[in-house]
Specification:
237 residues, alpha/beta, Rossmann fold, two-stranded parallel ribbon, 9 helices, 10 strands
Length: 237
């Protein structure tokens, strides 16, 4: 399969690309710089690197990069420093999600393309009416109005839910919500419809497990059919 990954130089994105290459998929990555990509990725004949800022691409270029892809994965996120949190682009995840989905639709592919968004457990799935404690609601309200990345994650997921929707003939989507991310090896993990212990007392999630789950979503048709158009929460067991 041909798979486009954006955010491939991030900690989770790199792991995802390595796992996908291990499955002999053809991988396209759009990166501003390839310096943070492992040599094993750069030297793999199944890797195609496009050096560009995702939001600087024209609509025509974006459509060309997603053309013939079976899946598109966004592991984009904001760098955890002052410039990354409060600087531009503030709507990186949302704008990339919107433009990538539009590009897929523009190509009018013969079969639907899988779109996977890596998000966060702090984002609420409004389809489920997920309940939050008073403390959680207060904290999320503060984050929404003080930290642009949180708002960006919210609107990216909402774009998939309410704009792309469930009846789209070209795009099927899944928004993966890991709990607190840590660096650790692949291990046993669980996938739930919603946070099971609240967002303030959940379990950590290794980035390698997030990458493994997203790889399995791409490879396993039954797993994809279970979680498409949903926002699964992934946690280490």
């Amino acid at each position: 399969m041909a798979i486009l990954v954006v955010g491939a130089t991030g900690k989770t994105g790199r792991l995802l690309v390595e796992q996908l290459l291990g499955k002999n998929h053809e991988i396209r990555v759009i990166v501003r710089s390839s310096i943070n990509l492992p040599r094993t990725v750069l030297e793999n004949p199944n890797t195609r690197v496009v050096k560009a800022s995702i939001l600087d691409l024209t609509d025509e270029e974006m459509a060309e990069h997603v053309k013939d892809c079976d899946a598109v994965v966004s592991c984009l996120g904001h760098v955890p420093n002052l410039k990354g949190i409060f600087g531009k682009p503030r709507n990186l995840c949302t704008d990339a999600t919107r433009r990538l989905c539009n590009a897929i639709e523009e190509n009018d592919p013969p079969k639907s393309v899988k779109f996977i968004l890596m998000n966060t457990v702090g984002i609420q799935n409004h389809d489920l009416g997920e309940r939050r404690t008073l403390l959680e609601r207060g904290l999320l309200t503060i984050l929404r109005y003080t930290l642009p990345p949180h708002r960006d994650n919210e609107t990216a997921a909402e774009h998939l839910r309410s704009v792309v929707g469930r009846e789209n003939e070209h795009v099927e989507w899944c928004s993966v919500r890991p709990d607190s991310l840590i660096d650790a090896e692949v291990s046993q993990y669980s996938v739930e419809e919603s946070p099971v212990t609240g967002i303030l007392s959940g379990r950590s999630t290794s980035r390698s497990n997030v990458a493994r789950f997203m790889t399995e979503l791409i490879d396993d048709a039954d797993l994809w059919n279970t979680w498409k158009f949903r926002m699964p929460v992934i946690m280490n067991s």
